[in-house]
Design a protein that fits this description.
Strand content: under 5%
Largest sheet: none
Mean pLDDT: 81
Oligomer: single chain
Helix content: over 70%
Order of helices and strands: HHHHHHHHHHH
Number of helices: 11
């Protein structure tokens, strides 16, 4: 595959910021091909093509992490090695988000609506739930927390299963979430830009600067730990998958893999709880201030 040759897994761990540009490129290429192949409804095809471009690189990255499991001396050393892989995952995800935000914000509205049709529908559902609960009681916030946690746990389980069955399959979930987050950011950016143009004029640089960064900060509050939890879970599932493929079932190796995967899953669950708390109790009030 041509796209995967731009960067190796070794380089991805040492220079993860380069994956931001790769993620951006994957989005541009995937969106162009998606529109060409399925012009009437390309949204899910675009996500699939981005996943297809990303899987070889991430699977090779997971193979390095599984090797670190069986060769590492201590769990601390192993987790330190995993941290570099997670930075690479997150850099690629950030590239996805930036690419999608760029397309949604600057493409003509009709083209953007076509490319992001499914994502817009998902955003409307999520936004209705968020703004509808922004001013409700504490008990409603608690109920919302458990609802968010339940839904996110399902995604977490799928991240594990996709990575176990397809090696780096969790990247599909990451690409989909990146596209939905980008639509949410893009809508807030366009709304804020319209307000600035009407109330202050189009020459106010400070207004434009805050317009682009404020929505990102709002979603980053709960989005960063949530996405990290899916990445950690996907890494755990991928390590199990590679261990099965390589038949690393020797007594010493198997114990290391089990301990490491258990630690990763506990970390993923902890991050998911933190993300659900932030999304239930903090994000709705930030969004209500932004819109």
């Amino acid at each position: 595959m041509v796209l995967e040759t731009f960067i190796s897994p070794f380089k991805a761990e040492k220079k993860p910021w380069e994956l931001i540009f790769m993620g951006f490129l994957f989005v541009l290429v995937g969106s162009l091909l998606g529109v060409m192949i399925f012009p009437n409804d390309p949204s899910l095809v675009v996500v699939f093509l981005i996943t297809l471009a990303s899987v070889p690189l991430l699977f090779n990255l997971i193979k390095l992490e599984e090797k670190a499991d069986v060769e590492g001396n201590t769990e601390t050393e192993i987790m330190s090695h995993h941290a570099r892989a997670l930075f690479a995952y997150f850099a690629l995800f950030l590239g996805f988000v930036l690419g999608f935000v760029f397309l949604f914000t600057f493409l003509p509205q009709s083209i953007a609506d076509n490319i992001f049709q499914s994502q817009i529908e998902e955003y409307l559902v999520i936004n209705g739930n968020v703004t509808g609960n922004a001013t409700q009681s504490a008990s409603a916030d608690i109920s919302r927390f458990f609802s968010i946690l339940s839904n996110n746990l399902k995604v977490l389980v799928f991240s594990i299963l996709f990575s176990f069955l397809y090696g780096a399959g969790a990247v599909f979930i990451l690409a989909w979430n990146a596209s939905v987050i980008a639509v949410a950011i893009g809508i807030l950016v366009k709304t804020a830009l319209a307000k600035i143009a009407i109330t202050q004029g189009s020459a106010v640089f400070g207004g434009y600067f805050s317009t682009f960064f404020s929505p990102i900060l709002h979603f980053a509050v709960h989005g960063v730990p949530e996405i990290l939890s899916y990445m950690v879970a996907g890494l755990a599932g991928g390590i199990i998958s590679v261990a099965v493929i390589r038949r690393d079932f020797a007594a010493g190796r198997l114990e290391k893999i089990i301990v490491d995967v258990a630690d990763l899953l506990l970390l993923a669950f902890g991050l998911l709880i933190a993300a659900a708390l932030l999304e239930a109790f903090v994000t709705p009030h930030l969004i209500s201030l932004a819109v």
